[in-house]
From TrEMBL:
Enzyme Commission code: 3.6.1.-
Cellular component, GO annotation: cytoplasm
Originating species: Rhodosalinus halophilus
Protein name per UniProt: Small ribosomal subunit biogenesis GTPase RsgA
Keywords: Cytoplasm, GTP-binding, Hydrolase, Metal-binding, Nucleotide-binding, Ribosome biogenesis, RNA-binding, rRNA-binding, Zinc
Location in the cell: Cytoplasm
Necessary cofactors: Zn(2+)
Amino acid sequence: MVRDYSAFLPGAAPARREPTALDRLGWGPAFARQIEAEALTATPPVRVVAVHRSGLQVAGDGIDETIPPGPEATVGDWLLYDRARPRSSRVLERKSLIKRRAPGTSREVQLIAANIDTVFVVTSCNADFNVARLERYVALAFEAGIEPVIVLTKADLAEDTAPYVDAAQAVSDRVPVVALDARGAEPAEALADWCKSGRTVAFLGSSGVGKSTLTNALLGTQAIATQGIREDDAKGRHTTTARELHITPGGCLVLDTPGMRELQLTDAATGIADVFEDIEALAASCRFTDCRHETEPGCAILAATEDGSLDPARLARWRKLQAEDAFNSASLADRREKDRAFGKLVRSAVQAKSDRKR
Ligand SMILES: Nc1nc2c(ncn2[C@@H]2O[C@H](COP(=O)(O)OP(=O)(O)OP(=O)(O)O)[C@@H](O)[C@H]2O)c(=O)[nH]1
Ligand SMILES: [Zn+2]
């Protein structure tokens, strides 16, 4: 008998195997290396596939259940499912995390989505197109540890998409740009490189740019109500499930969450620096390390605006994003400080009371 040892030879292609139930949910080495083999049976890994008011819907190998709210987890998270005490299920370390400052005055940080591989930053080839907004969303993706791709929708409605594509491409060398018609079959093909089996993707962008249309195009259904439909259905369809992972025919997981519509930057200094790496590099060569790039002699940034190599509008947007981030991060820090002070006050009041009782 002649045995075939070719699979053991150097350079042999790894044996191809069918994806497991966990692979299909986006499982991979980044998570597997966080747990011991024995733990796998005692506390099987499950992914949070939806967040309902009543709890977290989790799926795993032969598991599809809703567990009560409790673990500090969001859609996309992987948990080690503790059947006896679901609330104590451990959240595995994330590959990426999108969070935001809660709207309104509460200033809490909300977890929006975890373990997203690619964020499609969506805008359209019309009046919605706004470079500052693209920069903000790209910074947010970089900060979250996610690869961003800029998607320009409504290409069919624009006379010429080139100016939009050029402006989007100028946001960052590291971010691919795709222009398309979000309706029909085009998105599945144009976004195929990022929408592979077992990968998790999400769309981020303002209202009406085509996020639901794109999601439907990838899913090959009309599962998500688009704006046109929603207008004559005032009840809204997102009321029962706020955040959910859908699966495409090709096995890609697509996140749908209303929380992705308005995102303020907070604690995103690194993400901003990644988007504006051209300006950051200039800043590093200013004569003074604490240069404010206003009137200082030897300022490389001012020199670049003067010789025309740096667009003053881009410089202004960098300053504005930094200010927004500093404001939001500071108010969070403030809040934490106040919470600590309040906790201290309560503790000393309780102490005083028990002292009096003695
Ligand atoms: N012609 C054309 N229309 C589009 C395109 N993309 C989206 N639309 C239309 O634009 C409208 C808004 O699209 P939606 O997919 O609902 O936008 P959305 O980003 O999900 O909006 P929100 O749900 O409010 O966040 C719908 O009527 C779509 O049919 C496109 O590429 N070309
Ligand atoms: Zn300077």
